[in-house]
Amino acid sequence: MTTRHARSDLAGRRPDASMTLLTEVSSSSLDEGYALVARRRAAGLEPAPRATSRVLTAVVAAAVGLALCAAALALHQPTASAQKAREVLESRIVERNDEVAALQGEIEDLDAQITALQSALAGSASDRLDPGPAVTVAAGQVAVSGPGLRVELADAQGSDPDAPDDDSRVQDVDLQVVVNGLWQAGAEAVAINGQRITSTTAIRSAGSAVLVDLVPLSGPYRVEAVGNAVTLQTGLARSSAGDLLTALRTTYGIGVDVSRQDSLEVPRAAPVTLRYARVPDDELPPALQPTPAPTSAAAPTAPPASASAAGPSAPGRPVSASRARVAVSATQVADTQRSSPTGPGEDRS
Amino acid sequence: MIAVIGLVVGVVAGLALQPTVPAELQPYLPIAVVAALDAIFGGVRAMLDGIFDDRVFLISFLSNVIVAALIVFLGDQLGVGSQLSTAVVVVLGIRIFSNAASIRRHLFKA
How confident is the model at residue A160 (pLDDT cuts 50, 70, 90)? Predict the structure, then answer.
């Protein structure tokens, strides 16, 4: 190496001096042992191979070939096992998906059964068991359609989806304030992206997603309220929600679109289940009592058995009672900081 | 020539027996196979040059594989295993290419 360098220094800089490594590698690609042995053989220095060395060569070559084959097979193996693992995972995913579909079908069946039983109950009992449309609508137990107001909130444009800025996104607090403002303005039924809002629905955020009734929603958020569209719009504009909407639009660049709609469809909420309340046996309406009883025994003050359908807002109580509570928290919201991590959802519960 | 026959016998036996390689040796297999390929191409070129020798072929084969595996092992211990593997693959790759080019000149005179 050094001698070669010295020579190149004498003859001036070689044109490929900067590539000596590459030239070295490609010019001496053949093992020099071959040339060496050939020279020695030509000079008659190499003795003729003996029988034992021939056998040894064959054995070593066979062993090397075996090892090479084993290596190649072992290198081929992992892809096969990875493929197998992938297939197992795929089949498991398909299996679980089928399970989910089956369970969802079961849920639908059971829901239908509950509704059928409740309607059978209402039909068999007296009219008092029917809580009336005001209660069932307020409790979100029936789908509702009619004119109303639609408020669309969209995340601010131009915000980087990889590094979202909290202030440029629609947050749970914003939706809470808008929904409360709509209730305050006299909405009869409210839904966000098709999720019905009832007095027990929570609007919360989990990470960057907004959960409505534990269902994650993504923007743009469509808040639809059924009611007198004109009253709703003026009421919303006058409430604290109106101020918030203006602030969202001007300060944070969030897309706000309030529009009156001639016909809105608001779906029903999930059926309400009674957990603790029981109707005493002797207070049951006649149709539900196990043994025949005098028809006049049903006390007029007895709570209807289908109070379950009415949910937390008790029948007979004005529906606006729950709204009044909601309205209080709406004013609270106006005071809270927009970026505060705890929304008024906690206050409401 | 005996070495080539032995090698072919070994490969056939390996295909028939399907031997397994110990898990500790697995990381060195890719480099070892590249080194073996280099030795095989060198052997073929030597054969076409008329200077093939069984002993040189076998020794170059074994030393290539062992040195390549040793370099990777050392690199793993030093934390530069992937870089050293790349270096070995580059050098052996260039050698394989130039040997293959020489073989091609011998076979097709082009």
Answer: low
